[in-house]
Amino acid sequence: MRITWLGHSAFRVEFDGHALLIDPFLTGNPGFNGDHAAVTAGISHILITHGHGDHVGDTIAIAKETGATVVTNYELCMWLASQGVAKVDPMNTGGTTDQGGFTVTLVRADHSAGMGEAGVAVPLGFPNGLIVKAKGQPTLYHFGDTDIFSDMGLIAELHQPRIGLVPIGDRFTMGAEVAALAVKRYFDFDAVLPCHYASFPPLAANADAFVTAMQGHKTRVHTPKSGEAVEL
Length: 232
Fold this sequence. Notes:
By secondary structure, the chain is of the alpha/beta class.
């Protein structure tokens, strides 16, 4: 599995001939310095954790350009369809869908969801984490935006993820030390990649505190620069 961090919480994930984007916030993302065409080349799916602008990002434009299927919660799917996205596959928390070669499961996240229209916040379903499973590949868990919660233990028991994409930026998600506690207490990851940091001034400027909090633990921490790929 090849995972490329695109800044903030955006990732490109490639395995077995599949290419997907998660939370493709590219335009306006200070952490993204890559080539838009290269990042979106060959993608078949866009997975979205929740309905905030820094996670929905460029979904509408990318879906129209590529014909990719968007997978997310029902309310956000219906809103995206109203904006001209042709292929949506709506879900809700706890559900699993077969995307042809891999499955996606939506799990709980402790956050909020909604985007402003004409000064009014429009609710767009519940926030989620994403579980991606494919035969012969390590199970991937993108936490979405969340705080720690004890039911992470159930997510670990049910899905046994091996790779974690973990928000560490604080203020809008758990901070570095709490994120490290979540990883160490509830999961048996082979590798984790921190995210949701180093993009906007209110967030943590780097992953140093997370790396320090994870020292001595068997889980390997990868902190690629934006645009760098990690092979797992």
